[in-house]
């Protein structure tokens, strides 16, 4: 029973039930794994392109018809020479470019805007890296028959149905007028079919945009599900970010040792060591170059206090016992910092006593 309980705990720890951490989200983004719907791109692109056709359609039609009129009125009479063919090619290319440039420009802007709207600014080459796992036929078969593939199939059928229904409905509404176009002029027929096409495009684009909202919501849900983490993953990530506790403890211990070693090297230069006398030891130094107040060069309790006193004795540094002052300095003053103003008088008296002993005054 104990083994079974441990197994259940192990599987529970590995179950991906937790929301992704900010680091996990950033790592996924760096790999190019972001929630994104292609339908947003498609719908936005179609809406912008057909919007341009709606606004500039008459001008484009005039440019195209003018190009044909010029071709059959002027070019048809030209001799077929290398120079004449080159001239025709350049002029035709320029006229066609004037028609296509607004459409291509808007398509590029729409593509960039729809991507920025979904994922923001992102540069990564991770998806371009060669991954041999993608060539695995078993994994490929699993993707084909996965739940995601089924969702994509349903989504594609829904798009085809929506666009087909909208197109059929518009044609059906205009069928009578469409039949009469054979009796109209070419200009009227072009205007009618152009407007009808733009209407079908705009309606289809709006329908795709509505569908893309649903698809983007699903893509976000699926992305959040895929980047979920287990409790063990979160602990491992925290451990990697903060460092292994044992390693951190060793580093801190090493830092304490280095700090103590550096502190001990300052004791020989101290003017006096104030002691408890057994538990506390505070090494004090006064130098006009360092400031107007004495400052602490070393302090410690128990074993470190004993080491400070040993170093002081070995270097002929005077040791003075003052229990209350030693405790107060230890608690209220840091190493390499001047003593607090409240201790000036007591420390000054001790330093005066030390200077007298050393015959400095």
UniProtKB/TrEMBL annotation:
Keyword terms, alphabetized: Bacterial flagellum biogenesis, Bacterial flagellum protein export, Cell membrane, Cell projection, Cilium, Flagellum, Membrane, Protein transport, Transmembrane, Transmembrane helix, Transport
Lineage, opening ranks: Bacteria, Bacillati, Bacillota, Bacilli, Bacillales
GO biological process: bacterial-type flagellum assembly; protein secretion
Organism domain of life: Bacteria
Function: Required for formation of the rod structure in the basal body of the flagellar apparatus. Together with FliI and FliH, may constitute the export apparatus of flagellin.
Transport is among the record's keywords: yes
Family classification: Belongs to the type III secretion exporter family.
Keyword Cell membrane in annotation: yes
Pfam families according to UniProt: Bac_export_2
Residue ranges of the region described as Disordered: 17-36
Organism: Halobacillus halophilus (strain ATCC 35676 / DSM 2266 / JCM 20832 / KCTC 3685 / LMG 17431 / NBRC 102448 / NCIMB 2269)
TM region(s), chain numbering: 40-57, 156-174, 186-211
InterPro entries: FlhB, T3SS_substrate_exporter, T3SS_substrate_exporter_C
Membrane topology: Multi-pass membrane protein
Primary localisation category: membrane
Gene, per the UniProt record: flhB
Basic and acidic residues bias spans: 17-30
Protein name per UniProt: Flagellar biosynthetic protein FlhB
